[in-house]
Amino acid sequence: MSVKKEISSLDRALKCAEYALDKKAYEVKILEIARLSSIADYLVIASGTSDKQVQAIAESVRTGLKKFGKPLDIEGLAEGKWVVIDYGDVLFHVFIEELRSYYDLDGLWQVAPQVEIPEKFLWETKGA
């Protein structure tokens, strides 16, 4: 039986962002929601341009975090429009762009402090 490595909530959220950005997710945000809600410590939101990319982003996060334990639940992976991966302390959402703007989690959680994502993970700014 293998022992899973321990990881802090913040490190898990950063890993979610890293693995999402590895699959060219865009508009990735990490929001610290612990003081605002009991549902999780962090909310990570990302976008993809197609259902296939949304699925690839979600799979990258799930696979990358496997060594730290299994998620409590995954919803929407088969459809690839809006995938939610629940790690208990971190909720990871990846949307196809139209649904992200429709459900507007960014606006709903606008008062939550945003965590800075390390520059080394940001593919959009490389070479700019």
UniProtKB/TrEMBL annotation:
Keyword field contains Flavoprotein: no
Gene Ontology cellular component terms for the protein in this record: cytoplasm
Gene3D superfamilies: Beta Polymerase, domain 2
Gene Ontology biological process terms from the UniProt entry: cytosolic ribosome assembly; negative regulation of ribosome biogenesis; negative regulation of translation
InterPro entries: Iojap/RsfS/C7orf30, NT_sf
Subcellular localization, as worded in the UniProt entry: Cytoplasm
The entry's keywords: Cytoplasm, Repressor, Translation regulation
Molecular function (Gene Ontology), one example: ribosomal large subunit binding
Protein task: Functions as a ribosomal silencing factor. Interacts with ribosomal protein uL14 (rplN), blocking formation of intersubunit bridge B8. Prevents association of the 30S and 50S ribosomal subunits and the formation of functional ribosomes, thus repressing translation.
Subunit-structure text: Interacts with ribosomal protein uL14 (rplN).
UniProt similarity note: Belongs to the Iojap/RsfS family.
HAMAP family to which the protein is assigned, alphabetical: Iojap_RsfS
PANTHER family: IOJAP SUPERFAMILY ORTHOLOG, MITOCHONDRIAL ASSEMBLY OF RIBOSOMAL LARGE SUBUNIT PROTEIN 1
Name of the protein in question: Ribosomal silencing factor RsfS
Species whose genome carries this gene: Geoanaerobacter pelophilus
